[in-house]
Amino acid sequence: MSSAVVEAKNLFAKFDDNGDGLISEDEFEEGYRMFFDADEGMIRELKEHLRCRKTGRFDYITWSMTLSPRDLPRITRACREQGPLSMATPTEEELELIENMYNRGYALAEEAAQNGTRLLIDAEQVRFQPAIDNLVLDLQQKYNSTEKSNFPLIYNTYQCYLKDAFDRLTIDVERSERFDFHFGAKLVRGAYMESERYLAKKGGYPSPIHDTIQDTHDCYNQAVDYLLQHASQKNGKNTELMLATHNRESIENAIASMNKHGISRKAATTAFGQLYGMADNLSFNLGKHGYERSTRYFLVHCVRKLALTFNSLFLALPDTEPTSMSLTEKLRWSCLT
Ligand SMILES: Cc1cc2nc3c(=O)[nH]c(=O)nc-3n(C[C@H](O)[C@H](O)[C@H](O)COP(=O)(O)OP(=O)(O)OC[C@H]3O[C@@H](n4cnc5c(N)ncnc54)[C@H](O)[C@@H]3O)c2cc1C
Q: How many Å apart are CA 97 and CA 90, to the nearest integer?
């Protein structure tokens, strides 16, 4: 599903002939005729589907929101030749799996909505993330809508060790503005640095991870300040963030940013999350100083990471060792991340 999402987005760049981030009527028609057997009815239908209702234009934000992997089988039937988009098109069986995944997401979100509880969706490795983002976006549009809720019920997670994290965050915020839903984000640094770098090296593509830890720290702190600044602008929509980190400096920076943007420590805007037993001094201190939304997350997260590490360890065994870490170091690392 991730490749279907990515290829549906790549189609935008192929249509956007002059690379200005917008597709004109001419570019749309030329692009369509270049890659697909022209069918006037289908061109008309697609245009209506993908056009931004507010501006009447074709832009990336609307395109990536409305062109779903579930639309692809019908669209790629008209492909002139087999390319990445037609190859990424889900089969009947995959469509059924996608449908099941969406239904599970809806069931969880519905439960959260009925209980007035926020649902924070974890971020995983980059090869799975487009599919997760696609589902989360769908849930956010429905459950974070200003008509349905007074706060963001569904949060996505942004891994600030990724080079494109900040750009993705700003695009998603802009999308929530345009489609009138509250925005919720959990900010983490990211737990899969070793395996992402290993996979990039093995696959011969540039590593998605920042080159230095300082770049990751800068990205994290910039994302926090950006969201707090956005949250302070009252425009009928609420922005909330959860800082899921054990990094003292980031927490101190966030508190300074909250003061700068006039956000109360009691407001729902900011929450802090640490893993149970990993940084209790930070959690207790935040609670003691009136930061009411400071939470310690129970061991289940740690157990999940252990399982993942075992999985990647054994998957990696027949291959060259992805990391210089010993088994003990890996297990410790998996518990810490
Ligand atoms: C409540 C909670 C929920 C979480 N949910 C998720 C989740 O959904 N998805 C997920 O991936 N992780 C998740 N994590 C784990 C998180 O991503 C971090 O791995 C962990 O919290 C340690 O990061 P820190 O912010 O405490 O940073 P620090 O301990 O200050 O920094 C360590 C992090 O910096 C980054 N880093 C280290 N060295 C380098 C380098 N050389 N170059 C670039 N970057 C580097 C790595 O991301 C590393 O984990 C969660 C953590 C918590 C507390």
A: 10
